[in-house]
Amino acid sequence: MVSSRVHLVGLDGLRGLAAASVLCYHVSNVLSPDIHRRAPLLVDLLHQGLTLFFVLSGFLLFLGFAERLIDGRPLPGLRQYAFSRILRIWPAYLVILLVTDVVFGLSFVRPRGVGRLSVGELVMDATLLHSYQPSTLRTGLEVSWTLTVELTFYALLPVLAWLAGRVVPTRNASAPEWLRARGGLRVLVPVVAMAGIGAAGHLWAASMRHVPGGARGWSADIPSVVSRSLLMQADLFALGMISALVIIAARRGQWGMRGYVVAEASAVLVAVAALTVFVGDHRGTVVADLVGAGFAALVVAILLPSTRGSVGPVGRVLESPVLRGLGLVSYSLYLWHMPVVRAMQHWFGPLGGGWGVYLLQTCIVLVVSTALATATYLAVERPALRLKARFAGTRAAAPALAARGLTFSADPHRRGCPAGPER
Q1: Is 159 exposed, middle or buried (0-12, 13-18, 19+ CB in 10 A)?
Q2: Which residue, among 55, 56, 132, 131, has the nearest Cα to 288 in the 3D structure?
Q3: Which terminus of the chain is more solvent-facing, meaning fewer CB atoms within 10 Å of its CB: N or C?
């Protein structure tokens, strides 16, 4: 894929905020359930950090594929793509899983509790196949089911792009304009496919509402496995993919100034409208899709100014050193924070309720998790990223999206974009 040095304005900061939000959610859910009762709207909003991660993954992964489909150019090499994904996901994950399980004995095990996994369970978790089996769903690092979802998307996206490329046989960038114009239709194939998968997931969930138990989410049964699979998250990736198409169109100057202003205003309006509806009905059946649409619009609103050589006010805030630094280590942060939460629960027990205790617990978990995440990033993630960059440097690099000095990467995990914790 493209160089690891490219940068998308504001997205590191978004990752930092998302990681912090899911950490705060899990502290309230596990250590301070009283806060869940006192401020359900706030807790449910914090819960949507995972939605943001899935939207970002759809946006960032599809960006490079979409450019190539539109232009009729060859798709990224499969070996390089797979190697990049493996280096991004597994090194830090395996280290944190082994330390959590073998050293501290803080893995989540069934029945509900904390301890060490059996050898068979550890193998299932290490290979990220545990989310496909009812008896091992959620075991080990509780948030790792999202990695299985992400890996499924990683595997499916090149297949969808390849199928889309068959719509027009040529991949020659010098092909006649009338032929290349069909790339605009070709690039929609993966988006429609992911949206269709998500729609099928919602239909399945609706059908399960009248079944005893239904799609419960965390039970050791097949409905829970399905509910924690790509089938139930695909529409969120599709929303991010739509955002990628909007940014590509803006970068290529498809609109005049009036169109650009309308697009930016529309993105802001959608984001605000989604938040407003969420406040009114934050327990609705389509909350994730509603919030996902808002996050997709937010990504567009943040990046649109960059396509014209400037940085908007939200982008400047997200580029602050603290948020960018948090985004840099956010993958390890999201993997570490639940073991830290479970350690506090296991070793210290409940500390009472109230906002003061919740804030204290949150600060402790954030500081400890960030320290562990920083160490993991420096010792494991960064060397793996450098290896990935060296491997990419020996092959033909995928052309980047460049706009007035800003380069867009097709790699969502350049700086540790986490897949997101449990929802």
Answers
A1: exposed
A2: 55
A3: C
Continuous segment of H or E residues that includes residue 402 = strand 401-403
Beta bridge partners of 114: 108
pTM attached to this predicted model:
0.88
The Cα 156–Cα 161 span in angstroms is 9
- HSE value, Cβ hemisphere, 13 Å, CA-based, for 146: 25
| Residue 50 · residue 392 · CB < 8 Å | no
User: 408: burial class by Cβ within 10 Å (0-12, 13-18, 19+)?
Assistant: buried
Residue 272, burial from CB neighbour count under 10 angstroms (0-12, 13-18, 19+) = middle
User: What is the distance between the alpha carbons of residues 168 and 69, in angstroms, rounded to a whole number?
Assistant: 10
Report the percentage of the chain scoring pLDDT > 70.
84
Reported as type and span, the H/E element at residue 109 is strand 107-109
Cα separation, 313 vs 326, whole angstroms: 19
pLDDT band at 193 (very low <50, low <70, confident <90, very high): very high
* pLDDT tens-digit readout, 200-229: 999 998 888 766 555 567 888 898 999 999
Q: 231, 197 in Cβ contact below 8 A?
A: yes
What does the mean pLDDT of the chain come to? Answer: 85
pLDDT given for residue 410 in this prediction:
38
Whether the link from the prior residue into 169 is cis, omega within 30° of 0, is: no
Whether the per-residue pLDDT at 397 is higher than 70: the answer is: no
Q: Is the peptide bond before 383 cis (omega within 30 degrees of 0)?
A: no
**Residue 401, beta-bridge partner list:** 408
Pairwise CA distance, residues 170 & 49, whole Å: 40
Percentage with pLDDT > 90 across the chain? 63
The whole-number average pLDDT for the span 304-310 is 87
Token pair recorded at residue 44: 């449910």
Residue in the block written with tokens 């998500």: 198
CA nearest 317: which of 334, 302, 329, 300? 302
Helix (H, G, I), strand (E, B) or coil at 113: strand
Q: Which two tokens stand for residue 168?
A: 């027009």
Q: Are 138 and 108 in contact (CB under 8 A)?
A: yes
Task: Tell me how far apart the alpha carbons of residues 230 and 200 are, in angstroms, rounded to a whole number.
Answer: 11
Residue 413 CB contacts under 8 Å (≥ 6 apart), including other chains? 88, 89, 331
Report the C-alpha gap between 359 and 2 in whole angstroms: 40
Tell me: the pLDDT tens digits for 100-121?
A: 999 999 999 988 789 999 999 9
Which amino acid type is present at position 147? L
